[in-house]
Amino acid sequence: MRNKLYYTFEDHLKESLKDPEFRKVWKDSELEYKLACQLIEKRLAKKMSQRDLAKKVKTTQAVISRLETMNENPSLSLLKRIAQALGTKINLQIE
């Protein structure tokens, strides 16, 4: 990374995952992280604020905020309403 002009999140994550303790914490929260990122990405692609999405889903902006900051575990029914409001679908699999 010596010749790099910038340090990305991916660079930081790759380096951090070398630590076994961090790797376990990351693995335990990876699903929530991916969900939060996808929610934010889809919402912004639709040019919606958290408040706009909350209105469509019939919840509060605070709930959307907590989902996007990984501070809330959503129910499947809430995820379905969010997906519908964003004009997308949920792809769930158990491996």
From TrEMBL:
One Pfam entry name: HTH_3
Matching SUPFAM superfamilies: lambda repressor-like DNA-binding domains
Q: InterPro entries, alphabetically?
A: Cro/C1-type_HTH (IPR001387), Lambda_DNA-bd_dom_sf (IPR010982)
**Which residues lie in coiled coils?**
none
> GO molecular function of the protein, one example?
DNA binding
All copies of the HTH cro/C1-type domain together span 39-93
Gene3D superfamilies for the chain? lambda repressor-like DNA-binding domains
> What CDD domains would the database entry show?
HTH_XRE
Question: What's this protein's name?
Answer: Transcriptional regulator
Species name: Candidatus Shapirobacteria bacterium CG08_land_8_20_14_0_20_39_18
